[in-house]
Specification:
about 90 residues, alpha+beta, Alpha-Beta Plaits, two-stranded antiparallel ribbon, 3 helices, elongated, binds iron/sulfur cluster
Length: about 90
């Protein structure tokens, strides 16, 4: 059984690329994308690894609804846990 999987989910069209979440993450788990969103901002993305679910990024983000921290607890099926981890790693939690 997997105890917990945590990861940030960033809405790239709301993110203004201010980098507060990047600076504030104690795990250095958030990075700035090389791409721009429709408004012309480079947006933040999850690196795909290292999130502990501390929520510092959530509390430091000034843009409502730009960033959520998802925490999945007590996942009883290891195959489901593997699928979730693979998705988060490949898509940065988005
Ligand atoms: S929840 Fe904590 S560890 Fe995870 S990305 Fe946000 S600041 Fe980093
Ligand atoms: S703190 Fe919020 S607005 Fe700033 S880069 Fe991170 S997700 Fe984007």
């Amino acid at each position: 059984m997997t105890e917990e999987i945590s990861y940030p989910v960033i809405n790239k069209e709301i993110c203004k690329g201010c980098m507060r979440c990047i600076v504030g993450c104690p795990q250095n788990a958030i990075v700035l994308s090389d791409e721009m969103n429709d408004a012309g901002y480079q947006f933040a993305v999850y690196s795909g690894d290292g999130c502990t679910g501390c929520k510092d990024c959530y509390f430091t983000c000034p843009e409502p609804l730009a960033l959520e921290v998802h925490q999945l607890k007590n996942i009883r099926n290891d195959d489901v846990a593997k699928m979730i981890k693979a998705k988060v790693t490949s898509k940065g939690g988005n």
